[in-house]
Design goal:
mainly beta, 3 helices, 7% helix, 41% strand
Length: 284
């Protein structure tokens, strides 16, 4: 997600392989949030407020119940669900004096939880709308991209597909290692799906609803640069809107970079929600 000026998909492709369920009897849970409380558990999550803006994104991240809320009336959710909400907010001004017409939410576990190897999973339901840019991802604790980035779920509003990606030394930004997964109709991003990543010393396996959709090995990565996935990573959930990558996909230049008028109209009618039923990390 971060520091991309342009984004190109390096389609590596891999035959789908049905794997066992993501949680095995020998595995233990090392992190979980079921989002069943009255508000976000800040012992687990930090709420990010916009300072530096990257990727030409069109939103300000704010710490507000307008953009980050726990809902208890969400159809299909087990208990409560986290809602990361992108809203229309004309001329919103940040503490730095920058103005945006949209606000949204971003949370992470930096300094509160990180892990090395294991399975990270989230049950998520997205809103379709060209230019919306939700993601569930993991990032290293040092300089980007040297300490690695793993995008477990990424989408730019097209209901038909989601994206997995890796960014590291010599394969970041436009050279990132990415794979696009298309849903089999009638399924799409607007239904509930479990997005997960199994991380071992020598491979990263990306799954949707427990089905393997993409595998990339240490040897495959090292054709491009150093394997950056032997150090702790923290989790991130966010929903951006607009910017360089959405524009590269949808071609929209106005009324906002990467955001066509149809999406603006949709957000004016009601918030665009990234809903998260739960997040879990397990380890053998």
């Amino acid at each position: 997600m971060r520091h991309w000026i342009l984004y190109s998909l390096l389609i590596t492709g891999w035959a789908g392989i049905l794997l066992p369920a993501q949680s095995h009897p020998a595995e233990r849970t090392i992190f979980s949030d079921e989002f069943s409380g009255r508000e976000l558990d800040r012992s687990k999550w930090n709420v990010i407020v916009t300072g530096e803006t990257v990727n030409d994104e069109q939103q300000a991240y704010v710490d507000s119940s307008e953009t980050i809320a726990i809902l208890h009336d969400v159809p299909g959710a087990d208990e409560g669900a986290l809602a990361i909400r992108t809203r229309d907010k004309p001329r919103f001004t940040t503490p730095e004096g920058r103005t945006f017409d949209f606000i949204s939410g971003r949370i992470d576990t930096r300094s509160k939880f990180d892990f090395t190897y294991g399975t990270a999973a989230a049950r998520v339901k997205l809103t379709a709308g060209a230019g919306l840019w939700p993601a569930f991802w993991a990032l290293g604790n040092g300089d980007w991209p040297d300490t690695g980035e793993m995008d477990i779920l990424e989408n730019v509003g097209d209901p038909a597909w989601i994206n997995f990606a890796l960014h590291g030394p010599k394969y970041s930004g436009a050279k990132g290692l990415a794979h696009r997964m298309y849903f089999a109709p009638p399924e799409d991003i607007t239904g509930w799906h479990v997005y997960s990543m199994r991380w071992t010393r020598n491979a990263l396996v990306f799954l949707v609803d427990d089905r393997e959709e993409h595998r990339i090995t240490r040897a495959m990565v090292e054709r491009h640069g150093r394997w950056a996935y032997d150090t702790p990573k923290f989790l991130i959930l966010n929903q951006a809107i607009g910017g360089s990558y959405p524009q590269a996909v949808n071609g929209a230049a106005s009324p906002y970079k990467g955001v066509p008028q149809a999406t603006v109209t949709r957000i004016k009618e009601r918030p665009a929600d990234m809903l998260v039923d739960w997040v879990r990390v397990t380890k053998s």
